[in-house]
Design a protein that fits this description.
The protein is α+β, with helices and mostly antiparallel strands. The chain is built from five helices and twelve strands. The strands form three sheets. It has a six-stranded antiparallel beta sheet, with helices on one face. Strands 4-5-9-10 form a four-stranded antiparallel beta sheet, covered by helices on one side.
Length: 231
């Protein structure tokens, strides 16, 4: 057997794997936590989102977020969902990429660079325009029951005694893609919205139905499912 090519082949494989890790590893991950004060006490839920810059050679892509919307089960058949979207005249999917960065910048009073994010720690408030679009489903099995929940008037949709509490962002360990399974390997991206809203996999674009029912603008211009989950 001729072994003279083993070294170069192993080297090329190592270079390829290393390059794939460089391209696909998130720039940073953050945990988005949503709290709601209810008549039965405080309810909360959180989800880890991964923010990926465009490191490809074509530079034809853009920064993107991977993860799911945060579903808060409030009990008594009520819920609150923090979508992966903001409103800037119409639905804006890209703002989600910068929620944590802008929240840390606001909390620290000085600009934080994208490259610094993975080295930060601690929880910071997500307030004002950084708060994602919030909706509630009167019936989670029916996308047509979605209603927008205003941060400063939660009771209008959720009922008396329901008030939006703190929303926070916290940078979590990035891990070593694709081995970020938890613990020392880093926080994995949180999945679970499909279990809460199984109609999302429907063939008749039910995500758009939900957004229209909530009266959100610009639904036709986006992939509506990405408001709830992104790969």
């Amino acid at each position: 057997m001729n072994f003279k090519w083993v070294g170069p082949v192993v080297l090329l494989a190592a270079l390829f794997i290393g390059d794939q890790i460089r391209i696909n590893r998130p720039g940073h991950k953050y945990r988005l936590t949503v709290e709601v004060e209810t008549p039965a006490g405080r309810k909360s839920a959180s989800g880890v989102l991964a923010v990926h810059p465009d490191r490809g050679y074509s530079r034809g892509g853009h920064t993107r977020t991977v993860g799911d919307a945060v579903f808060v089960d409030l009990g008594a058949g009520k819920n609150l969902v923090a979508l992966l979207a903001h409103i800037d005249g119409k639905l804006d999917l890209d703002a989600t990429n910068y929620v944590a960065l802008r929240a840390y910048t606001a909390a620290g009073g000085k600009r934080v660079s994208f490259n610094e994010m993975s080295r930060l720690s601690g929880s910071v408030p997500v307030t004002g325009a950084l708060i994602p679009v919030l909706v509630s489903f009167a019936d989670p099995s029916n996308p047509g029951t979605a209603r927008v929940v205003l941060p400063d008037d939660s009771e209008a949709v959720l009922g008396k005694g329901y008030r939006l509490g703190a929303i926070t962002a916290e940078v979590v360990p990035n891990g070593f893609w694709p081995l970020d399974f938890g613990g020392v390997l880093g926080e994995p991206v949180t999945r679970g919205i499909l279990a809460r809203l199984p109609w999302l996999n429907g063939s008749d674009n039910p995500a758009a139905t939900a957004l229209r029912a909530a009266g959100l603008p610009g639904v036709e211009a986006i992939d509506a499912k990405e408001v709830f989950t992104r790969k």
